Amino acid sequence: MPIPETQWAQVVEKKGGPLIYKQIPVPKPGPDEILLNVKYTGVYHTDLHAMKGDWPLTLKIPLVGGHEGAGIVVAKGEMANGLEVGDHAGIKWLNGSCLACEFCKTGDEPLCAGQQLSGYTVDGTFQQYAIGKAAHAIKLPKEVSFDAVAPILCAGITVYKGLKESGARPGQMVAIVGAGGGLGSLAQQYAKAMGLRVIAIDGGDEKRQMCKELGAEAYIDFTKSKDLVADVKTATPEGLGAHAVLVLAVSERPFQQAVDYARPRGVIVAIGLPANAFLKAPVFESVVKMINIKGSYVGNRQDGVEAVDFFARGRIKAPFKVAPLEDLPKVFELMEQGKIAGRYVLKIPE
């Protein structure tokens, strides 16, 4: 199929929005880039932050957001290795890095000072055709469906990396805060696939049902619990607390509360990124319990390969709903209201 000159996209023309659904030129790939005909793209809370521009990162304006795009490679530059025209591929949050600094050489590409971020510092996947650096785009098995794999490309990789960073071992218990959301629904499955036991923390009966279906051993509803810390501890062996805590929340309080129900030598992994929030923990309790508090960003290239492999082998099934690209503003409204169980995936027009 010939590549058109123009395409449909959701564009943020000024910080804070609104989104404008309009036609824009189709970009041309540079020497080390691919052009992806996007079929489906996930919607992530990061995309809402991008529209608002409320993170301390340089924001491209005008901006096409989105960073979980799955589709078909339709063009490539002469130095774009590892992918061929016709391959199925995904574009992730980390669109590109220098590949030459200390961090890139040691598998910490997300820490590269020269990183390019899809849907934030460079245009992303809320469009029909998107550009990605070939070194960071991930080749997808042709047997996997574009809609189902899209949420793996950032949300899946991110929680998989967080679980690895926690150091939790098979048989140990991990508390997942925000377990019923897009990240949490995947985190539960990766945890189970890695042999971990899950305590799900979230709010509402719809999320309770979903978490139970995903195999959580306990569900703590923070909207109904009279003592969340006690409830989490009760759900753990000997009442000592969780071996690891993944905090995926979009507000500050859960980050501060995690120390209270982590067991001695527990590891708290901060993944959620609420705007203008701070990590705070009591020094005495953190010291005498030997608590480890750490941040976990997106995974590197190998983490991406591993996360997709779990999915391709049928171990991960992301709960998602499908909406057309033009409905992105409605999806953002539901996201802000906390009414999304699982994820939304946008179908890109042909």
TrEMBL record:
It comes from the Eukaryota. InterPro entries: ADH-like_C, ADH-like_N, ADH_Zn_CS, ER, GroES-like_sf, NAD(P)-bd_dom_sf. GO terms for molecular function: alcohol dehydrogenase (NAD+) activity; zinc ion binding. Residues 16-346 form the Enoyl reductase (ER) domain. GO terms for cellular component: cytoplasm. Its EC number is 1.1.1.1. Keywords: Metal-binding, NAD, Oxidoreductase, Zinc. SUPFAM superfamilies: GroES-like, NAD(P)-binding Rossmann-fold domains. It holds the Pfam family ADH_zinc_N. Its cofactor is Zn(2+). Belongs to the zinc-containing alcohol dehydrogenase family. This is alcohol dehydrogenase. It comes from Penicillium citrinum.
